[in-house]
C-alpha cells in the first residue's frame, strides 16, 4: 500500500509539475517579464522582401526598446498552410500579412482583430486613400491596413530581347500581337543553351484569367460569392494559347518543375512574364540584373485594357493577440514611418500612404521609380478603368486549385481543357462559400 | 503491461481464496493500483497523443471541417467524394506502385548485402556501418535536397547518362522517371532490414550448411532450401514493416516535388495528397476520411500477410 501511495503521490507531483511547466510555456509567447513585449509577425515573400522587413523591424525595435519582434516568412502557398494551422490552434501571429483572397474567410471566422479603436491613436490611416482603406473593412470593422497597390504588368527583359534581336511589343498591343511576339522570341531563342522561350503559358495563371474575364465585360464573381463566368468562358480562355502550346513556344513545364522555386523569367530563360508589378523587385534580385521593364496588359476585344489596382497586401492583427496596442504600433510604423518606407520601397506595392509616397526618395532609374511611374502612367493613359474583382470566401482555395493542381496537370497534357473546366466547376462547389 | 499484470496477480500472502462475486482483496487492489500508477505516464500519453486525436479524426472525417471556418456533419459524403476524385485515384496508383515495386527490391537488396556481409572476413563492421549509413541520413531533408540536385537537368545522373548515350534530361521533370527515382531513394535506404537480416542469418546453425555440403548441394540449392526457409520469420517481419513504411512515405516526396507531387502527379503519394487537401486547401474533413481509409487498407494488407504467413513462414521447433 505504501508503495502505491508513494507512487501515486510521486506521479501527482510529476503531473502537477508538467502542467505548471506547460502553463508557463503557453504564457511565454507573450513574454511579459520586466515590461518586455514580444510580438510575432509573419509574411509571405522571397528573400528580397525579408531583408527589407528585417531592416525596418530593426529600426522599430530600436525606437521601441521594450518590444521585441519575432519574424517568420514563407512562400505564398506554404504561408497560408501555416496560418490555417495557426488558426486551428488559436495562435495567429500578432501581426500578419493578409491578402484579399483570405480576408473574408478569416474575418467571418472571427480570427482578426478589429483595429477601429486604434484609428487616429496608435494607428494613423489618414494618409491612405479612402477607397483603398475600405478594401480592408468588412461590416464597419477595420481588419486589414493596405500596404500599397499593385496592378498587372508584363515584365520584360530588354537585355535578353536585344540579344535575340526581338523588339518588345508596343503598349497598345493586343493578345494576338502578344502571341506572335512570344512565338518570335521562342524561335529566336531555340538554339541557345539553355534554350530561351517567350513566356510561360499564361492560361494557367489565375489572375490573367480574371483580367481576361474583366476585359470580356464579365465580373468574375457575383455578390453572393457565386462564379459569374461560364464553363465556355474558361474553355475559350484555356484554348487561346493552343497554337503556341502545340508549336512548343510556351515555356516547357518539365523545365519549370526543375527550376522551382524560380520560374522561367527570373532564371533568364524566358523573355517576358505577366505578374503583379511589385514582383519587379524579387525578379531583379533573382536575375541579378536591375534592367527589367514593365508594360501594361494586352488590350481586350474592344481595344481597351480594363486594368485595375489591387491592394497588394494588408497588415492584420490576430484576434488572439495579447498586445493589441503594440501590434497596432508596429503596423503604423510599417505603413507610415518615412525611414521604414525608404527601406521597404515599393516591394509591398506602391505605398498606400500618400505621405509616405511623397516622402519616398526615389533614385532615378531605380526599380522603385519604375514601379511608381508604371502605375502612374497606366492611370494617365486611361488603362485603369475597373475595380479589383470581388474576392468571395474561398477565393484563395479556388486559386490554389486552378494554379497548383489543374494548371500543372493541364501543362503536362494530363488533362485537356474540358477536364480542366469540369474539375474546376466541381471543386468550386466545395471550395467557394456562397450565400 | 503483461509483466505488471503478472506481478499484480501473483498471490503473495498465502493465496487468498477465490471470491468471484465479492470484493477483491485489498492487497491485490493496491498492487494493481501501483501497477496502473506506473503505467499512467504511458497511458496518458497514449490517450492524449494517439487515441484522442484518432477519435477526433474519425469524427472529422464525417464533417466538412475547415481549419478557419469550422464545419458541419455531412455523413459519408467525404468517403463518397473520394471515389470521384481523379487525383485521389492518381495518388492510390502512385502509392501502390511504389509499395509493390519498391518493397521487394529493397528487401532483395538488403538480403543480398546481408549475405555478403555474413561471410566472416575482416572489416565486416566497417562495411556494415557504411551500408547502414544511408538509412540514418536518408530520411533527412538534406538528402532529399541533394537527391533533387543529382537528378536535375545536367545533374550528375543526367551527365552520367549522357556518357552512355542516354540523354533523357533530368529525372525530376520527367513524369516517367520521377517515380523510379523515388523508389531508388527508398531502396538505397536498405540498412534497417539489412541489419535484421544479418542477425537472422547468424542464427542459422552452420551444421545445416555443413550437412548440405556433405550431400553435395550447390550454393543456390543451399540458399533456397536452407537460408530462405530458416530466414522466413525475419523475412516476414521485414516485409510487413517495409510495406507499412512504404505506404507512409512523405518527407522525401514533399521535398523533392516541392510539396506538389509533380511532375504531372507522378509522385503524388497518398500522404502527400492528404496533406495538400488537409492543410493546403483546408479540407480537414476530407483529409481525415483519406487517413482512415489508409489505416483500414494498411490494416487489411497486414492481416492478409499474417493469414498467408502460415503457408510460407517456417518457425524452427514448430516441426512442420
Structure description:
Chain A has helices at residues 2-28, 47-63, 76-88, 100-108, 130-134, 158-164, 175-188, 206-215, 231-238, 242-246, 253-259, 280-287, 324-336, 338-344, 354-359, 367-380, 395-411, 417-431, and strands spanning 37-44, 67-74, 95-98, 137-138, 141-142, 145-146, 148-150, 152-156, 272-276, 293-295, 307-311, 314-317, 350-351, 384-387. A 5-stranded mixed beta sheet of chain A has the order 2-1-3-12-6. Chain A has a 4-stranded mixed beta sheet with strand order 13-7-11-14, with helices on both faces. Chain A has 435 residues and is of the alpha+beta class. The longest helix of chain A has 27 residues, at 2-28. Chain A is built from 18 helices and 14 strands. The model of chain A is unreliable at 1-8 and 10-32 (pLDDT under 50). In chain A, helix 2 (47-63) runs antiparallel to helix 14 (338-344). Chain B has a single domain (79-312), classed as MetI-like fold (Orthogonal Bundle). In chain B, 70% of the residues lie in helices and 0% in strands. In chain B, helix 2 (26-60) packs across helix 14 (284-312), helix 4 packs parallel to helix 8 and helix 11 runs antiparallel to helix 14. Chains A and B meet through helix 1, helix 3, helix 4, helix 11 and helix 17 of A and helix 2 of B.
Amino acid at each position: 500500500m505504501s508503495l502505491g501511495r508513494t507512487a501515486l503521490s510521486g506521479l501527482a507531483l510529476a503531473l502537477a509539475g508538467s502542467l505548471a511547466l506547460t502553463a508557463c510555456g503557453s504564457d511565454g509567447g507573450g513574454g511579459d517579464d520586466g515590461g518586455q513585449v514580444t510580438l510575432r509577425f509573419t509574411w509571405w515573400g522571397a528573400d528580397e522582401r525579408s531583408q527589407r522587413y528585417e531592416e525596418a523591424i530593426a529600426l522599430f525595435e530600436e525606437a521601441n526598446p521594450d518590444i521585441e519582434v519575432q519574424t517568420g516568412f514563407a512562400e505564398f502557398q506554404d504561408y497560408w498552410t501555416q496560418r490555417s494551422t495557426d488558426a486551428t490552434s488559436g495562435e495567429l501571429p500578432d501581426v500578419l500579412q493578409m491578402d484579399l483572397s483570405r480576408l473574408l474567410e478569416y474575418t467571418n471566422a472571427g480570427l482578426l482583430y478589429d483595429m477601429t479603436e486604434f484609428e487616429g491613436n496608435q494607428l494613423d490611416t489618414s494618409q491612405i486613400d479612402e477607397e483603398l482603406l475600405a478594401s480592408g473593412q468588412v461590416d464597419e470593422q477595420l481588419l486589414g491596413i493596405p500596404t500599397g497597390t499593385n496592378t498587372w504588368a508584363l515584365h520584360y527583359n530588354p537585355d535578353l530581347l536585344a540579344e535575340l534581336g526581338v523588339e518588345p511589343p508596343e503598349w497598345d498591343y493586343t493578345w494576338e500581337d502578344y502571341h506572335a511576339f512570344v512565338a518570335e522570341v521562342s524561335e529566336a531563342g531555340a538554339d541557345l543553351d539553355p534554350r530561351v522561350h517567350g513566356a510561360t503559358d499564361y492560361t494557367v495563371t489565375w489572375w490573367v484569367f480574371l483580367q481576361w474575364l474583366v476585359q470580356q465585360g464579365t465580373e468574375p464573381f457575383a455578390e453572393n460569392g457565386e462564379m459569374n463566368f461560364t464553363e465556355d468562358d474558361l474553355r475559350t480562355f484555356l484554348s487561346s494559347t493552343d497554337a503556341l502550346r502545340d508549336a512548343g513556344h510556351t515555356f516547357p513545364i518539365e523545365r519549370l518543375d526543375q527550376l522551382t522555386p524560380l520560374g522561367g523569367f527570373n532564371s533568364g530563360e524566358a523573355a517576358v512574364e505577366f505578374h503583379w508589378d511589385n514582383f519587379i523587385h524579387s525578379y531583379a534580385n533573382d536575375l541579378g540584373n536591375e534592367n527589367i521593364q514593365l508594360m501594361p496588359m494586352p488590350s481586350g476585344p474592344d481595344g481597351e485594357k480594363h486594368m485595375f489596382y489591387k491592394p497588394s497586401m494588408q497588415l492584420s492583427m490576430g484576434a488572439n493577440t495579447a498586445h493589441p496596442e503594440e501590434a497596432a504600433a508596429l503596423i503604423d510604423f510599417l505603413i507610415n514611418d518615412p525611414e521604414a518606407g525608404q527601406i521597404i520601397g515599393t516591394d509591398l506595392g506602391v505605398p498606400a500612404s500618400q505621405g509616405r509616397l511623397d516622402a519616398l526618395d526615389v533614385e532615378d532609374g531605380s526599380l522603385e521609380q519604375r514601379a511608381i511611374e508604371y502605375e502612374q502612367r497606366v492611370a494617365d493613359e486611361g488603362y485603369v478603368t475597373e475595380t479589383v474583382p470581388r474576392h468571395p470566401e474561398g477565393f484563395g482555395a479556388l486559386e490554389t486549385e486552378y494554379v497548383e493542381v489543374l494548371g500543372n496537370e493541364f501543362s503536362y497534357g494530363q488533362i485537356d481543357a474540358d477536364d480542366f473546366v469540369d474539375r474546376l466547376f466541381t471543386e468550386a462547389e466545395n471550395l467557394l462559400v456562397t450565400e | 503491461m503483461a509483466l505488471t499484470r503478472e506481478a499484480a496477480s501473483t498471490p503473495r500472502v498465502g493465496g487468498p481464496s477465490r471470491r468471484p462475486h465479492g470484493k477483491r482483496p485489498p492487497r491485490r487492489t493496491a498492487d494493481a493500483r501501483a501497477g496502473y500508477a506506473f503505467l499512467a505516464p504511458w497511458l496518458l500519453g497514449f490517450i492524449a497523443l494517439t487515441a484522442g486525436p484518432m477519435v477526433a479524426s474519425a469524427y472529422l472525417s464525417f464533417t466538412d471541417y475547415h481549419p478557419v471556418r469550422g464545419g458541419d456533419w455531412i455523413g459519408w459524403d467525404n468517403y463518397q467524394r473520394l471515389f470521384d476524385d481523379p487525383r485521389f485515384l492518381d495518388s492510390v496508383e502512385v502509392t501502390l506502385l511504389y509499395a509493390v515495386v519498391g518493397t521487394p527490391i529493397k528487401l532483395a537488396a538488403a538480403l543480398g548485402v546481408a549475405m555478403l556481409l555474413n561471410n566472416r572476413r575482416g572489416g565486416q563492421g566497417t562495411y556494415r556501418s557504411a551500408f547502414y549509413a544511408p538509412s540514418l541520413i536518408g530520411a533527412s531533408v538534406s538528402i532529399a535536397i541533394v537527391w533533387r540536385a543529382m537528378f536535375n537537368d545536367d545533374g550528375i545522373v543526367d551527365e552520367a547518362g549522357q556518357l552512355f548515350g542516354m540523354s533523357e534530361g533530368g529525372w525530376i521533370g520527367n513524369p516517367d522517371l520521377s517515380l523510379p527515382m523515388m523508389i531508388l531513394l527508398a531502396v538505397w535506404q536498405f540498412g534497417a532490414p539489412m541489419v535484421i537480416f544479418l542477425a537472422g542469418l547468424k542464427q542459422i546453425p552452420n551444421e545445416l550448411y555443413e550437412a548440405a555440403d556433405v550431400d553435395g548441394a550447390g550454393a543456390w540449392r543451399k540458399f533456397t532450401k536452407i537460408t530462405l526457409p530458416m530466414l522466413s520469420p525475419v523475412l516476414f517481419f521485414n516485409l510487413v514493416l517495409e510495406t507499412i513504411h512504404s505506404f507512409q512515405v512523405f518527407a522525401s516526396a514533399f521535398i523533392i516535388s516541392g510539396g506538389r507531387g509533380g511532375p504531372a502527379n507522378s509522385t503524388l503519394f497518398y500522404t502527400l495528397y492528404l496533406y495538400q487537401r488537409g492543410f493546403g486547401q483546408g479540407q480537414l474533413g476530407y483529409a481525415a476520411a483519406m487517413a482512415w481509409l489508409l489505416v483500414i487498407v494498411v490494416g487489411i494488407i497486414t492481416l492478409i500477410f499474417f493469414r498467408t504467413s502460415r503457408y510460407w513462414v517456417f518457425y524452427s521447433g514448430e516441426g512442420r
